[in-house]
Amino acid sequence: MGRAKAKKGPKYAVMKKLITRKTIQHHKEEVLNPAKKDPQKEKLPRNVPYVPSALFFKYNTALGPPYRVLVDTNFINFSIQNKLDLEKGMMDCLYAKCTPCITDCVMAELEKLGQKYRVALRIAKDPQFDRLPCIHKGTYADDCIVDRVTQHKCYIVATCDRDLKRRIRKIPGVPIMYIT
Predict the structure, then answer these.
(1) What torsion, rounded to 10 degrees, do the Cα atoms 86, 163, 168, 124 define?
(2) 126: closest CA among 114, 146, 110?
(3) Residue of 79, 95, 102, 150 with fewest CB within 10 Å of its CB?
(4) pLDDT tens, 1-56?
């Protein structure tokens, strides 16, 4: 059988809370305006990211012909599959002189892919491509491109990688070139 509950005695010196007009009004404001801003939270310092002066208004003034196009591994592969000449296609797209740039990480990624992508590697080793040396450790090309573009917003990024495009769209003032 169950235990018997101990009987609770009366509570002494307990006062009921009085409801005043002020508390009713405060309760109505909370119920009617739940999104009202708290003045204490507004006083906290905001973390405002640094925006370079090249992004005056909504345009990136650091971009201008001759355009420097930062090329990704899969952009080269897509251009081969679609039988496009990289530099000619870029010039047709932008109506200006373009300088394709390739980082050491992208070159290392192409070398790792092996014999299947030897044509892409031969295109990337072409002297018309500017080689950009990498200082960081590791050879993950996507991180390398994102870091370089956040530091220097003077590049157009050429990629067909969905994840990389999604990451670059979050960086203001960086245009993306891709093959559909």
Answers:
(1) -30
(2) 110
(3) 95
(4) 566 677 777 666 666 677 888 888 887 887 777 666 656 556 666 776 676 777 76
CA angle 88, 148, 85 (to 5 degrees): 15
pLDDT over 70 at 159, yes or no: yes
Say if residue 126 is exposed, middle or buried (CB neighbours under 10 Å; 0-12, 13-18, 19+): exposed
Cis check: omega of the bond before 66, within 30 degrees of 0 = yes
Answer whether 0.85 is exceeded by the pTM.
Answer: no
Nearest to 179 by CA among 84, 103, 100: 84
Helix runs in 8-131, H state only: 21-32, 39-42, 73-81, 86-94, 104-113, 118-124
Mean per-residue pLDDT, 160-180: 92
- Structure token pair of residue 104: 């050491």
